[in-house]
Amino acid sequence: MLISIDSAVPNREIRGIRGIRETRGPRLGRALSLLANMVIFPICSSSAWSAYFAVPAVANRASRSSVSHTTIVLWLASAMFISKAGDVFSAESAARSTEREKPRYETREQHDRDGIGKFYMGREISHVMGHLGADWLERPEREEEEQPNLLVKLLKLKPGDAAADIGAGTGYFTRRMAKEVGAAGTIYAVDIQEEMLDLLAKKMAELEITNFKLVLGTENDPKLPPDTLDLVLLVDVYHEFEFPFEMLDAICRSLKTGGRVAFVEYRLEDPSVPIKRLHKMSEAQVKKEAASLPLEWIETIRDLPRQHVIVFRKTKDEN
To answer: Does 223 lie in the same domain as 160?
Structure first.
């Protein structure tokens, strides 16, 4: 009699150290199967006969039959238990391996004209605003539409804090944040476009603001120092990240334990907000995408006219 533990689980050949870990479950299943087939059942058979002939000669045939049947049942029950355990372990390991192999991003030919055709967790990533749109960032009506001074107050920055403004653009928020942290604090102004950083530096020089650092980031790394920041601010920019997971992962590494990251996005839940759909994000989507990293949701602030501020705290140091 043979029992197959992992016949339903394909023996996938995966190269590298990671592959060894991913096939460990099926291998254990095969080991348990071998144990059942090569050891338990032979022992079961020999033990049953030994128990049968070990009964004294005066015992009747019914007594011998009872002993052998009981022994066989016990051994079979043990073998089936091991068989089932191996089957479950193999199937769960294979499921985890399949989940890990799913691509993080999806590309679709049919997509919104305002997006790049790349999707993350069901959301299409939008196009990035270029430096030629810098005037829109400094439009006079922005004070009324977004109330930036109120937003900065809601961030609760303190003198001496180190914070980052990612997607800083012309420095519209960098200069406001610099005032809050004072001379003892530092604001890291991050952008992936040198032209934007040039405009920002010129504006800060005009205002004689010096407690900031310019950082030229990349599409997947803001290039921030590790374990340094008390706050990272993302104003209407996260939805444009071409590599949102990698960027958020790098942001987490730059935060101190207990440091905060604030997503400021136009409310997708509010159809009255006059912004294109791909340039809005729902609170639920932000939480979904942050859930894969060591971030704990603190609060969602809804005091601004068109945007919500979704705030998370870094929960632990990353290894």
So the answer is: yes
Backbone angles phi, psi at 251, to 5 degrees: -60, -45
DSSP letter string, 236-296: S-GGG-SSHHHHHHHHHHHEEEEEEEEEEEEETT-TTS-S-GGGEE-HHHHHHHHTTSSEE
Residue 296 lies in a domain: yes
3-state SS assignment for residue 113? coil
Whether residues 158 and 83 fall in one domain: no
pLDDT in tens, 212-242: 999 999 999 999 999 999 999 999 999 999 9
Q: Please state, in angstroms and rounded to a whole number, the distance separating the CA atoms of residues 61 and 43.
A: 22
d(CA 157, CA 185): 10
Write down the pTM of the prediction. Answer: 0.70
Does one domain contain both 139 and 91?
Answer: no
State pLDDT tens for residues 184-203. 999 999 999 999 999 999 99
Domain enclosing residue 138, as ranges: 134-314
Is the same domain home to 225 and 163? Answer: yes
Which of 234, 284, 228 lies closest to 261 in space, CA to CA? Answer: 234
